[in-house]
Amino acid sequence: MSNKYSCFKFKKFSIQQTNAAMKIGTDGILLGAWADVEESKILLDIGTGTGVIALMQAQKNNQTIIDAVEIDTNACIDAKFNFEKSPWGNRITLHKCSLEEFNKNIKYDTIISNPPFYESSLAANSESRTVARHTATLHYNHILEHCKSSLSKSGNLCLILPVDQGNSCIIKAQKNGLYLKRKCNVFSKKSKPQHRLLLEFSLINQTPEESNLIIENEKRHDYTEQYKELTKDFYIIFD
Description:
Layout lengths: L6 E3 L4 E3 L9 H9 L7 E5 L5 H9 L4 E6 L2 H13 L6 E5 L11 E6 L13 H7 L6 H11 E11 L1 H13 L3 E11 L6 E7 L6 E8 L8 H7 L8
Parallel strand pairs: 3-4, 3-6, 4-5, 6-7, 8-10
Antiparallel strand pairs: 1-2, 7-9, 8-9
Helix pairs in contact: 1-2
């Protein structure tokens, strides 16, 4: 494992990402840190990739049991290694299959996903990267549909999406009986347009909470106190 993507170290675990097409990115870390799993006894991570989001939830809640679903063989190699080497491997089960093939007849307290969102862009250079990046294999519509039968009555669904898709997802979710509970508007910098939405849905119709998050100040790698506070339990660079 000599390339620059071989290992990413967090405070309490490490991620091997040699084989997975999609490497660790800000989206996954944002969702993993932002998701509310305080009351989650059983959790489903859809499209786990290297397993980073699942591991972040295991760190946050030392009681939760996690099912992690991933269709890509190479990503599963990394996820399996990362789960087994982590302090929480006994609480995480990896399932190599599509979401459509996964059916455990379990009601999850939290369902979480960082789904692909390149709906109309050109295919990536490799088949595995295309699968990881494009919604042809996993769309938020599939996740919403799955939640109808798999989310517990008091459970939550947590997603991160680009703004346009996120707003469409909010409308689609309500049609599926899932109501917006929390929304965070994410900006890479204060001077830049909003580029992501962090979304939490539940089966309970309520007035949603809304917040804003700016990742960096105007200088690159000069992170805001807000972003540091959100991710400090994971990133080695933040106290």
